[in-house]
Design a protein that fits this description.
Blueprint lengths: L4 E5 L10 H15 L5 E7 L9 E2 L2 E6 L8 H14 L4 E5 L7 H7 L3 E5 L12 H17 L2 E4 L2 H11 L4 E2 L6 H4 L15 E4 L8 H9 L6 E4 L6 H10 L5 E4 L5 H10 L2 E4 L8 H7 L4 E5 L2 H6 L5 E3 L2 H10 L2 H18 L2 H13 L1
Parallel strand pairs: 1-2, 1-5, 2-4, 5-6, 6-7, 7-8, 9-10, 9-12, 10-11, 12-13, 13-14
Antiparallel strand pairs: 3-4
Helix pairs in contact: 1-14, 7-12
Keywords: Transferase
Pfam family, one: DUF1972
Protein name: Glycosyl transferase group 1
Length: 362
């Protein structure tokens, strides 16, 4: 059987520095090597993020686009990447995200490539998008579903949304999280932290219910919370930190990108608090599940689907307070064991990458 040329589009690039799609792309390349697949890979990368511009990463060719992959340039970045993929006679295009999906009708016209799109987490519903940006993202999602040969949803709740909204079935493929435990732990002595604490890591955005979590723990002085995030990137984050940073049981840390340090912080935590209310399967949640800790998650379809309904759920600050105050060691241990079993069964990169390449092979 003739080998295929597969182009991966929509990420900053590989090797991954940060981000869910970048980690996905890197692990697809690693799986491609580990099982010696005959197909050829090209990963499109932002030259703005890779000044040395290596020509290859493991088995993948790297092609560089002179635009930023995120922010206002994300749309032309994806469109240029798609045009190059067509020019390079790709047999399969794996598009991660819908930013450039407005170009898919032209891709279908000029190319016979099979298009597989991961539509991400219903991006247009996020609170940070308003007005024209929200309308554009919704239109891009519609174009992605209509003009892709296959649609990937990272969560069963996303797949149900796509079916109800567009009448299209999706492949449900989540993310791996085992890379979070595969690294060596790194010392975190620069942080003076309590022995027992709840842990959370996320982008500091309203839809991640950061204010709800921090305010709830501010009323629980004997229960420390360590929360890692980009507090200074928005007025929302700065305001939450201003209001609560003086509380002695709250440790509101700046972003930590060293996965070894995150491993140390997660391993030492008594529980993980996950406030995301949007976005499908959140990488930070499946990573946390691999640590076998009890998980207290905001009650929404996405989080229930990811944890198979076996996490502990809260829908407001009072509910979170009650969970923290009443959580027994027995229940914490049981929930942690269930999270680890689900993670090992569903959220390893070997499982996820195989699902992607099965989809690619048709």
């Amino acid at each position: 059987m003739k080998s295929k040329l597969i182009s991966i589009i929509g990420t900053v690039g590989v090797p991954a520095n940060y981000g869910g799609f970048e980690t996905l792309a890197e692990n697809l390349v690693k799986y491609h090597v580990s099982v010696s697949l005959p197909d050829s890979l090209i990963v499109y990368c932002s030259s703005k993020s890779y000044p040395f511009r290596e020509p290859t990463f493991l088995s993948a060719q790297l092609k560089y686009v002179p635009l930023n992959a995120n922010g206002s340039q994300s749309i032309p970045y994806d469109i240029v990447s798609l045009a190059l993929a067509v020019w390079n006679r790709s047999d399969v295009i794996l598009l991660l995200g819908v930013s450039g999906a407005i170009a898919l009708p032209l891709v279908r016209f000029f190319s016979s490539a099979r298009i597989i799109t991961n539509i991400d987490g219903i991006e247009w519903r996020r609170e940070k998008w308003q007005g024209l940006a929200k309308q554009f993202l919704r239109f891009s999602e519609r174009m992605a579903v209509r003009f892709s040969h296959e649609v990937v949803a990272d969560n069963a709740a996303i797949a149900e949304y796509v079916l109800l909204s567009y009448g299209v079935d999706s492949h449900v493929i989540a993310y791996g999280g085992d890379h979070a435990i595969a690294v060596d732990a790194v010392n975190v002595d620069e942080y003076v932290l309590p022995e027992r604490y709840a842990f959370s890591v996320c982008r500091i955005e309203p839809e991640n219910n950061v204010h709800l979590i921090v305010e709830a723990f501010s009323t629980l002085p004997t229960h420390p919370l360590v929360m890692v995030g980009n507090w200074n990137n928005s007025e929302y984050g700065r305001e939450v930190r201003r209001r609560f940073a003086s509380r002695p049981n709250l440790f509101l840390l700046d972003p930590i990108y060293d996965i070894g340090k995150l491993k140390t912080l997660r391993s030492s935590a008594a529980m993980y608090v996950h406030g995301h209310s949007a976005g499908g399967t959140n990488p930070s949640l499946v990573e946390a599940m691999h640590f076998g800790k009890s998980i207290l998650a905001f009650d929404c379809d996405f989080n229930r689907s990811t944890t198979e309904g076996k996490a502990l759920f809260f829908s407001d600050g009072n509910g979170l307070q009650r969970l923290v105050e009443t959580l027994s060691d027995r229940v914490a241990h049981q929930v942690g064991e269930e999270m680890l079993e689900i993670a090992r069964r569903r959220y390893t990169w070997t499982v996820v990458a195989k699902q992607y390449f099965d989809c690619i092979s048709g």
